[in-house]
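During the reporting period the student researcher (J.K.) took over the structure-prediction task from the postdoctoral fellow and processed the backlog of single-chain submissions. One of the processed entries is reproduced below for the supervisory committee.
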Amino acid sequence: MKKTSWRDMAAAGLGLTLVLAACGSSSDSTGPGPTKAGAAPTTPAATTVALAVGGPFSGPEKPTGDQIQAGAKLAADELNAAGGITAGPLKGARIVLDTGYDDADDPAKAAANVRRAIDDKKVLALVGSGLSDASIAAAPDASRAGLPYLSAYASSPKILSAATDQKSVFVVPPTFPAYSSSVTSELLKAGYKSPAIIHLSGTYGDGVADGVVKRLGDQQITAVANESFTFTDTDLRAQLGRIKAKNPDSLVMVGLATSDALILKQADQLGLRVPAFDPGGITNSQSFLTDAGPLAEGVVGNTPSDAQRATPAAVALRAAYSKATGESVVPDPAVFSYEGVKAVAAAIADGASTRAQLVDKLHAVSIADTGVGPLSFAADGSRIGGRLYIFKIQNGVPQFTTGYEQTGPQSVKEVPLDR
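J.K. obtained the following C-alpha cells:
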C-alpha cells in the first residue's frame, strides 16, 4: 500500500478547515473539552483557527498540564484581544483552543491524541505535551502525517529523532543538552574537579545526566560517581552513601523539585554536604524552596524565566500572567505553551493557511523576544535562541548571575542578563 505524504494529505483537504465563529464551542471552561480563548472579533463572518492543546490534564502530573493550558490560553487571549491573526490570508482570524487532549502523561494516550488531531480537519496544529516520553510517542505519527506538533515543556532530543518522515515536529524549550551544559559550565567555572551525579532514571534523568557527563568530558573530567533512582523511590540513602564514599567536591542532582529536596535532606543526614547543582529540575520553583528549607541555600540551578528580566516583552508577560492566574512567576510549562501558540500565530501571519504551509512557515519563524528571549527553530525543529538563566539560592531566594543561549541542537553560549 502506498504511503500518503503529508503534502498529499494537505492537498486532499486534510489541512486546516476554517469554521465560522458561530460554529465554535460556547464553553469557557479551561478543563478538558473545546475551549474558547478571548472574545471574537466583531467582523460578522470571522473565521477561527483551531489549535489542539495536549498534556497531562489528569493524574499526578496535572499541575504541569494546568500550566500548559494557562500559558496557551494567555497567548490566545492576547492575540484575540488585539484583533486576531495580524496578517496573511487569515488576517483577523481568532484562535480557538481545544483542550480535550488529556494524555495523563501516558505515551499511548499521547500517541492516540495525535492521531485524533490528525483526523480532525479543524485542527491546524497541536501544542503539547508535558513530559518527554509522551512527546516521543506522539512525534512519529505527527511527523508521518505532517501535523505541526510543538512540544511544550518536553525537550528530549529523542522527540526530534523520533520524527523521521517530515520536519513537522518542533521542540519549543531548550533541549536537554542546553540545560545540562549551562549548569555544568557553572560548576566548571567554580573550579570543581570531582563532581558526583545522582539522577532520575528514564528519558529525562538519563538524558540530562548524559549531557552532564559529556560536558565534564569536554574538560577531561570524569564524575566520581553516577547513581540513579526512580520516581517512586523515597529513600536514596544507599545511593548517597556510595557517593559520599567517593569523596566528591560537588553534587549534580537531576530530578524534579520534590526529589531534589529529598536528596538534600538525606544527603545532610549522611553528612554529605557539598555544593549542589541542578540542571533543570528546580527551575526557580517555590515548592523546592519550601520543601528544602535552609538546605536550599547555595544550590545553583537554571530556568528560562528570569523574574527580574527587564525587557518590555518580559515585563508584559509577567504582568499578564499574574493578572490571569495570580502567580508572580511564569512557570516553565506555561512559558513554552505560550511561546508555542505565539509561534503558530506568527507563522499564520506570514502566510500559512494549511498544515503543510504552517510547517514551512514555522521553520522560518523569528521572534525577537517572546518575553523570555528570542525564538526560532533549527532545521531539525530544535529551539534556537532559547535562554536559560543561572541562579543561586541566597537567603532563601534565587539570585540570578548570568544566562546561556542555545545556539544549536547541542550547543550554548554565555550571555549577559537583560537588566
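The committee noted the following: The longest helix spans residues 62-81.
J.K. will present the remaining backlog at the next meeting.
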